[in-house]
Specification:
Elements (H helix, E strand, L loop, with lengths): L5 H21 L7 H31 L5 H5 L21 E2 L5 E6 L6 E7 L12 E2 L2 E5 L7 H5 L5 H8 L7 E5 L12 E2 L2 E2 H16 L9 E6 L1 H12 L6 E5 L14 H6 L2 H5 L7 E7 L7 H10 L6 E7 L6 H18 L4 E2 L6
Parallel strand pairs: 5-6, 5-9, 9-10, 10-11, 11-12
Antiparallel strand pairs: 1-2, 2-3, 3-6, 4-13, 7-8
Helix pairs in contact: 1-2
C-alpha cells in the first residue's frame, strides 16, 4: 500500500478508532493480578497514542510531500537511474479534473528523463466560448522543499487568492501550473546535476506539456515563474538560465541566493546555479522580483541586497521588497502575492488572440 495514498490514511484512521473503542470496552474486563492489568492498560494507551500520531504524521506527509514512498521514508531509494522513472510521455499524458476544476497529471519528460506531477488551473475565461481562440500566459508556481504542488492549494490559498486579484484588476488572467520541483524527492535547487536534470524538467519538459495540452502565449514574454522558499530560489534562477523560456520570475522569501552547500556540495556547480552569480553582468531580457521580511532568518535581507548589487551592471530588471515583519511561512508569502503577481502582470503579456489559420 502506498505511503502517500488516501487509502493508507483511511486505514490508519480506522485502526485508531478501533483501538480507542477496544480500550474503552476492555478497560474494566482485563483479568489477572493488579500489575498485569496496569501494564496491559498502559500498552493499550500507548497503542492508541501511536495510531493517533501516525494519522497526523501521514496527513502531514501527504500535505508537505516529505517522503514520496516507503523506500524514501526508510532511506533506501534508488535515485541513480532516472531513466527508469515511470510515466507516460507528453503525447499520452492525461489530465484528471477534480470537482473544483483543478487539473492533475503525472508524466515522463523526454528531455530530462524525469517523471512527476503537474497541477494546472485555467482561468474562467479559458473555457468561455468567447475566448476559444485566445491564448493565455502561463505562471508556473514552484513549491518549497519539503513540499509538493498541493502546497499551493492546501496552504497557499491558490487559485482563489489569484482569482481575487484578477477580479480586482490587479492582474490579467494566467494559466497557473504547479509542477513538482524535486522529482523522486531529490532536491537539487532546481539544477541540472550529473544524474538528475531538474532544471531541464522545469524549463523544457513542463513547458512542452503545457504547450501541447493548453492554448498558451508563445515566447518568454508569456511565461513566468513564482515560488516561495526553495521554490523562490528557483524562480530567481530559472529566468536567468533560460531567458528564452521565462520572461520574469518572482521569488518570495527565497533561500539564500548564493546556493546551499548541503544541496550542491560542488562549489563550481553551486556557483553555476547561483542566482547571484548568474545575474552579474547578465544580458538577459528578464525581470526578477524579490521579497523577504526583516524577521525571516531563512531568507535574510542581506542575500537579496547582495543580488541587487550584483545586478547593477546587468540588463536584468530587478524589484526588491522588504517587509518589516513576518516569518518564513505561508502567511508572509500570501501577503506578498499582490506585489509579486501585480509586478509579473506588468512584465508579462496578457491573453492574446491566436492567429487565424492560413487558408
Amino acid at each position: 500500500m502506498s505511503l502517500t495514498g488516501t487509502s493508507f490514511w483511511v486505514v490508519l484512521i480506522t485502526v485508531t478508532l478501533l483501538m480507542v473503542i477496544g480500550t474503552m470496552l476492555l478497560w474494566a474486563k482485563i483479568p489477572g493480578p493488579r500489575l498485569v492489568r496496569a501494564l496491559t492498560r498502559l500498552v493499550m494507551i500507548l497503542l492508541c497514542q501511536l495510531t493517533a500520531i501516525s494519522v497526523v504524521a501521514v496527513w502531514m506527509n501527504n500535505s508537505y510531500g516529505l517522503y514520496s514512498s516507503w523506500d524514501d521514508l526508510l532511506g533506501t531509494p534508488d535515485n541513480t537511474n532516472t531513466i527508469a522513472m515511470p510515466g507516460p510521455p507528453v503525447a499520452r499524458a492525461q489530465f484528471n479534473r477534480s470537482d473544483n476544476g483543478i487539473l492533475d497529471t503525472y508524466f515522463h519528460g523526454t528531455h530530462s528523463k524525469l517523471s512527476g506531477q503537474v497541477i494546472v488551473w485555467t482561468p474562467p475565461q479559458y473555457d468561455d466560448p468567447a475566448f476559444r481562440s485566445t491564448r493565455f500566459p502561463v505562471l508556473m508556481l514552484l513549491h518549497g522543499v519539503p513540499g509538493s504542488p498541493q502546497s499551493w492549494l492546501e496552504h497557499g490559498g491558490m487559485p482563489d487568492a489569484f482569482q481575487k486579484m484578477v477580479d480586482a484588476h490587479q492582474s490579467h488572467p494566467f494559466i497557473l501550473a504547479m509542477p513538482v520541483i524535486n522529482p523522486g524527492s531529490v532536491d537539487t535547487d532546481c539544477s541540472d546535476v550529473p544524474d538528475r536534470k531538474v532544471a531541464t524538467w522545469l524549463a523544457a519538459d513542463v513547458p512542452e506539456l503545457l504547450r501541447e495540452k493548453f492554448r498558451t502565449v508563445p515566447g518568454p514574454h508569456g511565461w513566468g515563474v513564482m515560488g516561495f522558499s526553495t521554490g523562490g530560489y528557483c524562480a530567481a534562477k530559472l529566468p536567468l538560465q533560460f531567458p528564452r523560456v521565462f520572461g520574469a520570475g518572482a521569488a518570495l522569501d527565497p533561500d539564500p541566493l548564493t546556493g546551499d552547500p548541503s544541496v550542491l556540495p560542488d562549489p563550481a556547480l553551486r556557483e553555476r546555479n547561483s542566482p547571484t552569480h548568474l545575474v552579474a553582468g547578465s544580458r538577459a531580457d528578464v525581470g526578477i522580483f524579490l521579497a523577504t521580511s526583516a524577521q525571516d532568518r531563512d531568507s535574510p535581507p542581506a542575500s537579496i541586497e547582495q543580488f541587487v548589487r550584483a545586478a547593477q551592471d546587468s540588463t536584468v530588471r530587478v524589484k526588491a521588497v522588504l517587509l518589516a515583519t513576518g516569518g518564513h511561512n505561508y502567511g508572509t508569502w500570501i501577503s506578498e502575492y499582490p506585489a509579486a503577481i501585480g509586478w509579473l502582470s506588468q512584465q508579462l503579456a496578457g491573453p492574446q488572440q491566436a492567429p487565424s489559420p492560413k487558408k
